[in-house]
Write a structure and sequence with these properties.
With 208 residues, the chain is mostly helical. Helix content is 69%, strand content 0%.
């Protein structure tokens, strides 16, 4: 009979182990938040030695960065889906991105709450910066179309203000929703029903 104190044997191929550790990290974030995350607990849940996460990711920040990278990639997909739902109307496409942003936060709260934590991620990782920029470009492009700016053209001050306003509104809404701040207003379902009306008031058909 094996000694229960023996470190678990690595039983994954390289890529499988990385995916298992990323999945374990995300599960911890869902249950305990970023403050409750440890490499040792990620290793325990993945069933590997305590040294395995550091070997593959270098540090806690390295593993969390992989979760955040996945988050930005997923966010970009939700934004594109929201854009597509808006059809050909630029205002509807911009509003669709806002809905997509909140849907992402609800579907992947652990990733959402981690992605903007400057203190816990390795922002020197070029992949993370590129993924964050790719998601931001989705929003920039939607605002260009809404304001009649040529694709790839520079954003003027008014367009930049629209970009920042759109991001701030849906980011704040998502945080409030995840924190349960809308419970007194009828809960998440009622808040989600109001969100399209709110976005339509901020970005009606045609540039504001």
């Amino acid at each position: 009979m094996a000694d229960e104190t023996t470190e678990p044997r690595e039983r994954y191929h390289h890529g499988d182990l990385q995916r298992a550790l990323i999945a374990a990290a995300e599960a911890i974030l869902i249950e305990r938040g970023v403050e409750g995350f440890t490499l040792r607990e990620a290793a325990r849940r993945a069933g590997v030695s305590a040294a395995a996460p550091a070997h593959h990711f270098g540090s806690a920040a390295g593993l969390l960065t992989e979760v955040a990278l996945l988050g930005f990639e997923t966010l970009a997909r939700f934004l594109r889906e929201g854009t597509a739902e808006g059809g050909t109307d630029p205002a509807a496409r911009l509003r669709g991105q806002g809905l997509g942003y909140v849907r992402f936060a609800r579907a992947h709260p652990a990733r959402f709450l981690l992605m903007f934590r400057k203190d816990r991620l390795s922002w020197e990782d070029g992949r993370l910066r590129a993924a964050g920029q790719a998601a931001f470009v989705e929003l920039e492009d939607a605002v260009r179309a809404y304001r009649g700016i040529a694709a790839g053209g520079p954003l003027d001050r008014a367009a930049l203000a629209t970009v920042l306003a759109a991001w701030s509104v849906v980011h704040g809404f998502a945080h409030l929703a995840l924190d349960g701040k809308f419970d007194a207003l009828g809960g998440a379902q009622e808040a989600d029903a109001i969100l399209p009306e709110m976005l339509a008031g901020l970005w009606p058909d045609g540039p504001g």
